[in-house]
Amino acid sequence: MTDEAYSMPDIEDIDEPQACPEAVTLTVPSDEVGERLDRFITQHTEHSRSAAARLIDEGKITVDGAARAKNYCLREGQTVTLAPEDAPVPCEAVAENIPLSIVYEDADLLVINKPTGMVVHPAPGHAHGTLVNALLYHCGGELSGVGGVLRPGIVHRIDKDTGGLLVVAKNDRTHRALAAQLQGHHIEREYHALVHGGFRTPCGTVDAPIGRHPTDRKRMAVLRNDPHARAAVTHYEVLESFGPISYLKLNLQTGRTHQIRVHMSSIGHPLLGDTVYGGGGTLFERKHEAYLKGQALFARKLSFTHPTTGEAVSFSCELDEDMKKLLEILRAQA
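Predicted structure:
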């Protein structure tokens, strides 16, 4: 579950480089001030530390247009640029006539109920059939360009196998305003999940920094002693208990990649169906795998201040059919 504001191209989910006739530019955020240049490149691209150092030495990575050493300490707002031939950026997304579940739409934004299994934006291996492809067809040219040609309109994202609500910006002003709310923790995001195990208390908070896994770059991990890990806070409440399985409501105070999945796994309660972070394999999961196409997680509620009207708005939707069916089975067995 990745839920982060886009104020710059973000390429951390890209697995393989693809040539594209433009450079990759990354802006240094406030919470990464003082970060070494080579570490910054490693955190935000698929380059290894040694590859980043080599590209820096070759002058193919610059800071504000100037070559720097690999141990150069970055300042807020600086622009880090990767030369085009080394930029792992997919080419421009194309419009596709794909049905959308639109919860709300006006001249500035849309709230979309993304189906489980749909990728948010194109990437290697997922060039078509994404939410962005559908949005381009539905909105035409009316999408913000802040996220670049790959992610027009996308203010935040959720994992492919997580369904539920996303807000999409139709113009740059709206995008920047929503991104500021997200970064300032002023957007309320409520998720529902099925997790392993029972809880001794009805509610709690996981406050643990998250960073890239030290040996598996496709995974995230709680890294308590790593100065490069980013603060992450998840609040949870037990809605129903079914013995070895619990039904939770979760609220994100921050929005890190896979935050809920990593946090719940870190306290011994991985999500059902989440084989990446310790779920899967139980008799219940094997018996009902038809309803577990990934982690049992759904973005059910989204609340924020409308950038144009200043009104506090809130949107919610029903759980998807798979989550409903799993709850029906658990309640029948209780």
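Summary: The domain at 102-183 is CATH 3.30.2350.10 (Pseudouridine synthase).
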